[in-house]
Design a protein that fits this description.
Layout lengths: L1 H6 L2 H60 L9 H12 L4 E8 L2 E5 L2 E8 L5 E2 L4 E8 L7 E7 L4 E5 L1 H5 L9 E6 L5 E5 L6 H4 L8 E6 L2 E7 L5 E8 L3 H18 L1 H15 L1 H11 L3 E10 L5 E11 L5 E2 L1 H10 L3 H22 L4 E5 L9 H13 L6 E6 L6 H13 L3 E7 L5 H5 L6 E4 L1 H4 L11 H11 L3 E4 L5 H9 L4 E2 L10 H18 L2
Parallel strand pairs: 14-16, 16-17, 17-18, 18-19, 19-20, 20-21
Antiparallel strand pairs: 1-2, 1-7, 2-3, 4-5, 5-6, 6-7, 8-9, 8-12, 10-11, 11-12, 13-14, 13-21, 14-15
Helix pairs in contact: 2-6, 6-7, 10-11
Length: 535
């Protein structure tokens, strides 16, 4: 704090003038901080809209439409065409309906044939990429909601999207407005909020990165143009929203400025340190070896025996605080620390696994890899070295990857092949919650598919997604993949999964995540029970 001592005497030397300047600076900082916070919120809204819109466009343009156009002899409204559209719609998270439009009538869709067709009206506009956009299309057979539709003019294939799936964002302010408009047409596509889009906003010049930030009509506005598709995302908040934060910050900064400029500097430093606290503590935790593993058993549904376990990273700080993985894993990913976390997981597994595989050589263990782990060979080589050191069969180890990793499909494919060539198994985790679809999965060499808990929870309920589990099971069977259901909590769920051909499950019905000592104790008890019963 030597710098603090150097500036400490200044306010006293400058007297009333210094105090007046300090107060002015405090007010300016309070206003600037409020404006920066407002800009961050608007940036977040535009970024989130663009991210979600890209996911939807990718599912139609690069997955569904590509798959349909790859079959040049396919008649859209034939039985084969209807089945193709139905299958693509089922496997898409965002596309509610896929259909075929001709002469402004929906002739058929993933719901079936529609006779003379359902009128959908003229397009709101046509994008420069050759897609007709309709912003509010009623579809009685799918409920009373209005759909955003995009029709490929060259083929008539059309995606129906519920705008709520894209713009269902918590804006943080009741006065926020956000949405999409056509980049070339400058026509609104979808949006939330009471604000009517200004033509001046939609024609605002964008910088080289496709971004514009400006103030207009009493609002702070952020525009983000898609680099691949013909639309722009926007986020807008009224400048009056600065008021509460400006007042709160002023009540803190102005009294401190009256005391000394030093107090203001110390506050800013303290705030900066607080923002960096968790990443800094995680770096310290990695150096101090504070991460450890818990193992959630994977159960054979036919026998009830523990046949494997998923290794889960846990972090207990030096003061005994247990930091949840859904808190520190995103920090590790955003700060570029996830490879170090994975390296610690592999190292801890290597220490834990010696006794495990000595007593139970047929046991299987799954280790989670992030998309960053699979974007290069570092984590892959670390795992291969660990398996070689342990002297176990590589098939005893499975690497679990999420659908998000498939965004970098070329690098992922290379590293998956490296792992599989070494004998390690690959499982796709949380299937159905990402944006990959079958078109990506079919190109990868996979061994198993994990059914996410959000779908398992719908078993035996009236939820609209309760049929998704059966579809996922059929997809896995068609691809020859083993299945593991996650988050099984009731016997009814287990019975359903077993009856439908799912081989394994994990969840609190069987066991929570356990330290290695408790896992070994459970396996030993299981082995003794099996020996006593002659199984």
């Amino acid at each position: 704090m030597n710098a603090d001592r150097k500036i400490g005497p200044a306010p006293y030397a400058l007297g009333l003038l210094a105090i007046a300047v300090s107060v002015s600076v405090a007010f300016f900082l309070a206003y600037w901080k409020g404006l920066g916070s407002l800009e961050d919120q608007a940036q977040h809204l535009a970024d989130e809209m663009l991210f979600r819109s890209h996911a939807v466009s990718e599912q139609f343009d690069n997955t569904a439409l590509k798959a349909l156009l790859a079959q040049p002899g396919l008649q859209p409204c034939s039985d084969a065409g209807l089945e193709a559209m139905r299958r693509l719609a089922i496997n898409s998270r965002a596309l509610r309906v896929i259909g075929y439009i001709q002469n402004e009538r929906l002739l058929c869709s993933s719901y079936g044939s529609h006779g003379d067709g359902i009128p959908v009206g003229p397009p709101s506009f046509v994008s420069k990429n050759g897609f007709a956009i309709r912003t509010a299309v009623p579809l009685p057979l799918a409920g009373n909601s209005l759909f955003l539709t995009t029709t490929h003019l060259g083929s008539g294939y059309t995606a129906f999207v519920m705008p709520g799936l894209v713009n269902d964002i918590m804006p943080g302010s009741s006065n926020a407005a956000f949405g999409l408009f056509g980049a070339s047409s400058q026509k609104p596509m979808m949006g939330r909020g009471d604000l009517k889009l200004s033509s001046a906003w939609m024609s605002a010049p964008l910088d080289a990165a496709g971004t514009a930030i400006f103030r207009g009509e009493g609002h702070l506005v952020v525009l983000k143009r898609s680099p691949w598709f013909d639309y722009v995302a926007y986020g807008a908040l009224p400048l009056s929203s600065i008021g509460p934060e400006f007042k709160t910050t002023s009540l803190i900064l102005v009294p401190l400025a009256l005391v000394s400029g030093l107090a203001l500097a110390a506050l800013i430093v303290l705030q900066a340190k607080r923002r960096l606290a968790l990443p800094h503590r995680l770096r310290q935790g990695l150096r101090r070896d504070e991460l450890f593993l818990a193992y959630q058993p994977i159960v054979d549904l036919a026998t009830g025996r523990w046949v494997g376990a998923e290794a889960l990273a846990r972090w207990r700080t030096a003061d005994g605080t247990l930091v949840p993985p859904d808190v520190f894993i995103p920090v590790a990913e955003s700060e570029g620390l996830i490879r170090q976390v994975t390296a610690k997981v592999i190292a801890n597994f290597g220490r834990d696994a010696v006794e495990l595989f000595r007593r139970h050589p047929e046991f299987r263990v799954s280790i989670n890899f992030s998309d960053q782990d699979l974007s290069d060979a570092q984590s892959v080589e670390t795992l291969k070295a660990c398996i070689q050191t342990l002297g176990i069969a590589p098939a005893r180890i499975a690497v679990e990857i999420t659908e998000r990793a498939l965004i970098h499909v070329d690098a992922v494919r290379r590293n998956i092949k490296t792992l599989r060539d070494a004998g390690t198994r690959i499982a796709i985790d949380d299937f159905g919650t990402g944006y990959s679809g079958l078109s990506y999965l079919a190109t990868l060499e996979l061994d198993a598919l994990k059914i996410d808990k959000i779908f398992v929870d719908t078993i035996g309920t009236d939820a609209v997604t309760n049929s998704v589990v059966s579809h996922i099971i059929e997809i896995a069977k068609s691809m020859g993949l083993k299945m593991v259901a996650e988050g099984v909590e009731t016997q009814a769920q287990a019975d359903y999964l077993r009856a439908h051909g799912v081989e394994c499950a994990q969840g609190w019905l069987y066991a929570k995540a356990l330290p290695m000592g408790e896992l070994l104790a459970g396996l030993n008890a299981q082995a003794q029970t099996g020996a006593a019963t002659g199984t």
